[in-house]
UniProtKB/TrEMBL annotation:
InterPro entries: DNA_primase/pol_bifunc_N. Pfam families: Prim-Pol (PF09250). This is Bifunctional DNA primase/polymerase, N-terminal. Residues 315-329 have a biased composition (Basic and acidic residues). It comes from Nocardiopsis flavescens. The lineage of its organism: Bacteria, Bacillati, Actinomycetota, Actinomycetes, Streptosporangiales. Residues 293-361 are annotated as: Disordered. Residues 32-188 form the DNA primase/polymerase bifunctional N-terminal domain. It comes from the Bacteria.
Length: 868
């Protein structure tokens, strides 16, 4: 345990102050010898921070150095011993910022920390001391301010902690454990690397690093290391050598490539190595070094420029590498060389280059100014990949999607909350505070991550000037003016971000007759021709559905330019194995999207619909495998099919989120139907194989379509064919056609009818029957049988149920009874009452209406003709 407990006046009260100071310095020196023997660098200080400029170069690392040079610190040699951490890693857990909670989280995930030396701080914090492995680069800073707040990593020449026994105004540092120092756990390096910096997007020059760290640019650091290595080997003429070295470095301090404090530290370290300080003293060496640096700063120099040939070769090589790693034109995250080793980027690399310049850093002065500065920096594009959607922000990042073929990734839009914004700022902006001495003179800049509430306030900004993002497309599409979007990256004209899945052939503005015929044959016959359609209307509807993605934005432009919801497609058959899911999945395989099993529970289905739209993986969303004969009824789905920008509450959130509804919804099932409020919002594609085992058919010209579209070249061909057909129609005038679907979906159905008429495809929407209600098919026979049996007699629910139980279908129901039949079950009777109550006063196409009235306190029902 520590023998040094800080100032102890005790019986010496009233003793001369010089004697007290001498006593403290002696005790401090003895304690420093003990710590130096353990391998720590030691520096005396009257407080918990150094008071000597260039302190990292002054640390005494052996007991012999302490005994020989301790007095050089003069009156500033106590009462505390500060430990520098070259060769050590310290985890600093601050309970005021959640450090102890983070310690519990870390141990729950990685297991208990190794038994090692532990110091306690005056404010109940903990310093866990470990040895560095000597090879893995790790930097000072917060471990991960988002996942593990209140945990700092301190290490290397710049790392510093007070020793056990040091005293501040808040109390003394204590030694909680004097165990042997253990090796640092490997997860510390991993977490610190993932949160310690991010790769810059390709094509964006990195800002000067003078204020991006304590040392300067890569060139400046290399220069300082080389000059100081030469200076350390000088054996004569040390003063002149130090002056010349300082002048040479000073040229680059003046141009911003070397941090002056860092330069002075290294010069003084070299002067200790060549015995200058031992011979002439620290003050003389410091004066010579400062004089030389000041002289050099008056004539600033920049690093020598690369030759034009070298620059061109590197630029071409970089462009080739960028194209191979990311066809969007944005280099995926990777290591960036630096003096402290590679800096790992965010695990979800940023996509795109939003307009605006990067900021080199923001000084934290007060809360209000910081909020304004951060909002301004975000608006200026300091955080790449941010776009505006409505009154919020989204971040574009690259993700690995299990639905995609192996090896493919895609760009995804992610809503930005305060946690995500804090993480992005930590990777792309430097926030720091300026530490000052007792006289207010700046000493150094220290990185600092603000509290999460700051980022909440930033996100509350009333408006953003960032580019508006409408969505992401992985294929070329038509813009609202009919031109083809085929340039990777953000497209201001459409608000879309083009993230190409592969290289696409150019689409002619005016396709030739031969190109149109080849494209039509591939889509209409080769891809879609093998399905057993009931009639021509089903085939025409399938063609419109499969090709709509490339032209949706253009149709919105024809109707005024805003987002418009499309009708849904209902792919229905009479038996399994007919090909419903395959047909519905064709545009999903090509353009991207979701195919998710249908959930009969209405509440669960509503949650599924909301999450599918919020996390959309593409322009198509299919609710697959509706149970056989099921009547689909869901208020959320119904509302989403009529709203351009619906709002809904996401799981785990307390406020509604607005979402752009630009997906094409679909259902698949055998003999399925829709409720009244959904029927008019869907059109049918009916399939009937006309055989007992339709799965045995081999009618597809291209074989297994899923395997066929697993090849990206086949997807590219299908996209090109769709674009050729749409461009030919646009070049011909984009005339509208006529069909049965009108009303709010007319913006989509009438131009689509015109496209099919232009291509010679008839029957579009001929099977559309919004009045063909699945409910009417069930309720009208039931009500007609009721009217025939009882005329307008009022009946209780239990009487109606008992009649069916007692007499069955032989007494006039003819199999039309739709209510529960367990008349002795109270819940069944109540359920039957709820069913009847839901249809009271509804006029059916057959002219009947169900009425409700009270008799002797009980509900009774009767069936009447609407006209009496």
């Amino acid at each position: 345990m520590s023998h040094f407990t800080g100032p102890q006046f005790g019986a010496q009260t009233g003793a001369p102050i010089d004697w007290v100071r001498a006593k403290l310095r002696a005790r401090c020196r003895a304690e420093a010898e003990r710590w130096a023997a353990m391998g720590f660098g030691t520096i005396p200080s009257p407080r918990k921070t150094p008071v000597h400029e260039g302190w990292p170069g002054l640390a005494l690392r052996t007991p012999e150095d302490v005994r020989a040079h301790w007095d050089v610190f003069g009156s500033l040699s106590g009462p505390n011993v500060l430990l520098t951490l070259l060769g050590f890693v310290v985890l600093d857990f601050d309970p005021r910022n959640g450090g102890l909670e983070s310690l519990a989280k870390l141990e729950a995930k990685y297991g208990p920390l190794p038994t090692t030396r532990v110091h306690g701080t005056p404010r109940d914090g903990l310093h866990y001391v470990f040895t560095h492995d000597g090879t893995t680069p790790v930097k000072n800073g917060e471990l991960d301010p988002v996942l593990y707040p209140g945990v700092d990593v301190k290490t290397g020449r710049g790392g510093l902690i007070p020793s056990a026994g040091s005293v501040t105004k808040h109390g003394a540092y204590t030694e909680r454990s004097d165990a042997e120092v253990a090796p640092c756990p490997s997860w510390v390096y991993q977490i610190r690397a993932s949160s310690g910096g991010a790769a810059k997007p390709s094509g964006t020059p990195a800002p000067p690093r003078t204020h991006d760290g304590p040392m300067g640019s890569a060139y400046g650091r290399k220069l300082v290391r080389g000059v100081c290595a030469d200076l350390a080997g000088v054996t004569s003429g040390r003063n002149d050598a130090l002056n010349n070295a300082a002048v040479r470095i000073g040229h680059f301090v003046g141009s911003g490539h070397v941090n002056e404090d860092y330069a002075l530290t290294e010069l003084m370290n070299a002067s200790r190595a060549n015995k200058y300080i031992a011979k002439d003293g620290y003050a003389a060496a410091e004066a010579t070094a400062r004089s030389g640096l000041n002289k050099g700063k008056t004539e600033p120099l920049d690093p020598p420029a690369r030759s034009a040939k070298t620059g061109a070769v590197e630029r071409v090589q970089r462009e080739v590498e960028d194209a191979e790693t990311d066809r969007v034109g944005v280099q995926e995250s990777g290591p960036v060389a630096g003096a402290d080793g590679a800096e790992d980027a965010d695990e979800n690399p940023t996509m795109g280059d939003a307009p605006g310049a990067k900021s080199s850093g923001i000084e934290i002065q007060d809360g209000q100014q910081l909020i304004r500065d951060l909002a301004r920096a975000v608006n200026d594009g300091a955080v790449p990949g941010l776009y505006s959607v409505g009154d919020g922000l989204v971040h574009l990042r690259r993700v690995y999607d299990p639905e995609l073929p192996a090896g493919e990734t895609r760009a995804a839009m992610e809503s930005v909350d305060s946690l995500r914004l804090g993480n992005l700022v930590a990777h792309h902006l430097r926030l720091y505070v300026v530490e000052r001495d007792d006289r207010g003179k700046p000493i150094r800049e220290k990185d600092k991550q603000p509290a999460q509430v700051v980022f909440k306030q930033v996100l509350a900004s009333p408006s953003w000037s960032l580019p508006p993002l409408r969505g992401v497309t992985r294929t070329p599409i038509l813009r609202q003016d009919g031109t083809v979007l085929n340039e990777p990256g953000y497209d201001p004209a459409s608000g879309m971000y083009f993230d190409p899945m592969c290289a696409f052939d150019p689409v002619p503005d005016r396709p030739s007759r031969g190109e149109v015929e080849r494209a039509f044959n591939h889509v209409y016959h080769e891809v879609l021709g093998g399905f057993p359609y009931v009639g021509q209307a089903d085939r025409a509807n399938a063609f419109a559905y499969a090709t709509h993605v490339v032209g949706r934005r253009f149709l919105e432009g024809m109707s005024g330019g805003g987002v418009q919801p499309t009708p849904g497609v209902n792919v229905v058959a009479g038996s399994q194995g007919t090909g419903k899911s395959y047909l519905a999945s064709v545009p999903v395989w090509v353009f991207g999207g979701d195919v998710t099993d249908y959930r009969p529970d209405e509440q669960e289905l509503g949650k599924l619909v909301v999450s599918t739209l919020h996390d959309k993986r593409g322009p198509v969303a299919i609710l697959d495998n509706v149970p056989d004969g099921y009547i689909v009824k869901n208020t959320t789905l119904a509302s989403f099919l009529t709203q351009a920008v619906p709002t809904a509450r996401l799981l785990g959130q307390t406020k509604n989120v607005a979402m752009i509804n630009d997906v094409f919804w679909g259902l698949t099932g055998n003999g399925t139907r829709q409720s009244d409020d959904l029927r008019r919002r869907f059109f049918d594609v009916r399939l009937d194989a006309g055989m007992a085992d339709p799965a045995m058919r081999e009618d597809f010209a291209l074989g297994d379509l899923k395997a066929h579209f697993g090849d990206v070249r086949n997807r590219a061909k299908f996209v090109w064919c769709c674009l050729v057909l749409w461009r030919a129609w646009v070049a011909a005038g984009a005339n509208e056609g006529s069909c049965r679907m009108r009303g709010s979906y007319g913006w989509w159905s009438k131009p689509t009818a015109g496209l099919l008429e232009f291509l010679g495809v008839g029957g579009f929407m001929d099977n559309y029957a919004p009045g063909g209600s699945a409910e009417a098919e069930r309720w009208e026979p039931f009500l007609m049988a009721w009217r025939a049996k009882y005329d307008s007699t009022r009946l209780k629910v239990s009487q109606l149920m008992r009649d069916h139980v007692d007499n069955g279908d032989a007494d006039g129901w003819g199999g039309s009874f739709i209510l529960p039949v367990n008349v002795n079950d109270y819940k069944a009777v109540r359920e039957a009452g709820d069913i009847l109550a839901s249809k009271v006063d509804k006029v059916w196409p057959c002219g009947l209406v169900l009425r409700k009235s009270k008799r002797a306190g009980s509900n009774t029902y009767r069936v009447e003709h609407v006209n009496g």
